[in-house]
Amino acid sequence: MSMSPTLQSTEQGQTYQNFIAGEWRNSKSGATFSSTNPANTDEIVGYFQKSTIADLDEAVAAARQAQPGWAATPAPERGEILLRTALLLEQQREELATLMTREMGKVIKETRGDIQTAIDVAKFIAGEGRRAEGETIPSALNNKFCLTIRQPLGVVGIITPWNFPLAIPAWKTLPALLAGNAVILKPASDTPLLSLKMAQILHEAGLPAGVLNVITGPGGVLGDALASHKGVNMISLTGSTEVGRHVAEICGRDLRRCTLELGGKNAVIVLEDADLDLAVENVAWGAFGTSGQRCTATSRVIVHKAVQQAFTDRLAAAAEKLNIGNGLDPKVDMGPLVNKGRVKAVHEYTQVGQMEGATLVTGGSPLSDGEYSPGAFYKPTIFTDVSPNMRIAREEVFGPFVSILPISSYEEAVQVANSTEYGLSTSIFTNDLRTTFRAMRDIEAGLVYFNASTTGAEIHLPFGGMKASGNGHRELGTHAVEEFSETKSVFLSYPPAHK
After folding, report:
1. Set 110, 295, 475, 483: catalytic member
2. Active site residue 295
3. Residue 261 annotated as catalytic
4. Per-residue pLDDT tens over the stretch 115-125
């Protein structure tokens, strides 16, 4: 059995197979689809299997067969496999980062960070294999002992997005594996390659055959089939709120556990006492890093009127200085959007903002001339004089697009920040200690930052949102493994023997 995911070379790319039961397999459909470089859509990164429900059935069968043996493996031993995975990822970091930039588009320093997140998660979750998996609790009765134990769910279906092609598959898959589950991973069709690479590395690290299965193909077919499959015990999805609602409805029919990490309309509040240079630097990174294609990206800036003009001028200057191009060039600050369809979608929001009466400060159009013509590039875009009821202030754009909303007080700022259906990440710039503690209490978001960007979560803290940004679950942190586990309460009675 070959451990390389490569089937054969083609003129422009390689053909990759699904990973099922420890083997590289073609889809039963016999069809493939291509993944292209968004900086140059004429370049094909690879061809991938256009999988069918029959392929999914094979993956589920393999997972169900392998899971009992994996669950019987001591948790510290499972953790050792994840630690070896981390070390292998470290050895291949540069190669994987380059592949990710070619496939997804974000700049090389960001793809290195994506790989580093996966390494950090692997090391952190490996250590969870040696932590207590339950607790002992005093009984209210004599001669009785109580405790809890944690047990795997069985088979976990994981559906991941294209914007973090390794970090998100890793931070879902590795806790699920550590908990003793078998996994079926369905990566986004725009970026399937890194998930296949992760499967290869995990099996090189010693993961038994069938414990992790990766299938590629259309989300509309495979996503629904995975979410409704009778052999799957849980679904973990990161995606849009619209897709999350759909998957939750499917899982709800069978009372299947479902954890959702969804969209955001993340706000930065800039008060009159803020350090404007610091705020501009962090908003530029939060709004235009990854070309704005992060669930935690800065989408709104809620600015006190006393500093609105100064802040807007400085942010526009920062945006216009950004070097845009192929992310493999270390001098480039912002790469392309993931595909040309996203360029069209972002531009539609520019047109909406203009129709709604907001003021376009800079950007507002694709970059499509000369060297940019084969790519999916869009100019960093800033609107000001935006009101909270405008669509560009309420809907997730998912591109290098930021709206500036003027306010007159802290109270108004919080009201505006909390006014959307989302509640993922919010940041506030202030040097007032009283305001800081009020904001901790008042802001409706799962992630709250002070004097920092809306991005930058740390893997040892819980990650997730309120309201329509999720369904109450948290990823990462010390409880990550518990999300993929069942808790069982155990009561031991030892009354005196009858004479």
Report:
1. 295
2. yes
3. yes
4. 999 999 999 99
